[in-house]
Amino acid sequence: MPVIRRQVSIATSPRTVWGALTTGDGLGRWMGGTARVDAREGGRLTVERDGGTSSGLFHSFRPTARLELKWTEGPWKGSFTQFSVARDKNETVLNVLHSGGPLDDEQVATGVDGEWKRLLTQLRDGIEAG
């Protein structure tokens, strides 16, 4: 099964990065849309952007450390995204693993990888700009 791995270092606290991953305002800023979040294990996430809707359920949820989301609607339906947040000196390191679902198609996987690269750059730049 193909797995996309991405990592970004952000000059901020893990709590700030966690807020960007688990709040509607935070997600909306870096994903470029609007988001509704029930931030808890079993909770739902819905992001509306570019005329489309993506939804998922939180499978695991360890505040300020790790969360896993199963996408249930949208272009990533059937895939999983795992976020791990860790402190490294004066920065926070965010690791993203995306697997399953439509990633079996090499062309789709390449597109999803490019999308994560773009999204994580937006996340980092938005947080660091304040």
Report what the structure shows:
The longest helix is centred in the last third of the chain and has 24 residues. The protein has a single domain, classed as Alpha-D-Glucose-1,6-Bisphosphate, Chain A, domain 4. The mean pLDDT is 95. 32% of the residues lie in helices and 44% in strands. Strand 2 and strand 3 form a beta hairpin. A seven-stranded antiparallel beta sheet has the order 1-7-6-5-4-3-2, covered by helices on one side. It is globular and about 40 Å long. Helix 1 crosses helix 2. With 130 residues, the chain is an alpha+beta fold.
Biggest sheet layout: 7 strands, antiparallel
Structural shape: globular
Mean pLDDT figure: 95
Percent helix, as a range, is 25-40%
Q: Label the CATH architecture.
A: 2-Layer Sandwich
- According to CATH, what is the class? Alpha Beta
CATH superfamily membership: START domain
- The amount of beta strand, in percent, is 35-45%
Q: For the largest sheet, list the strands in their spatial order.
A: 1-7-6-5-4-3-2
Strand elements, count: 7
How is the CATH topology named? Alpha-D-Glucose-1,6-Bisphosphate, Chain A, domain 4
Structure at a glance:
The protein is of the alpha+beta class.
List keywords for this structure.
130 residues, alpha+beta, Alpha-D-Glucose-1,6-Bisphosphate, Chain A, domain 4, 3 helices, 32% helix, 44% strand
Helix/strand layout:
Blueprint lengths: L2 E8 L3 H9 L1 H8 L2 E4 L6 E6 L2 E11 L3 E8 L5 E10 L2 E10 L5 H24 L1
Helix pairs in contact: 1-2
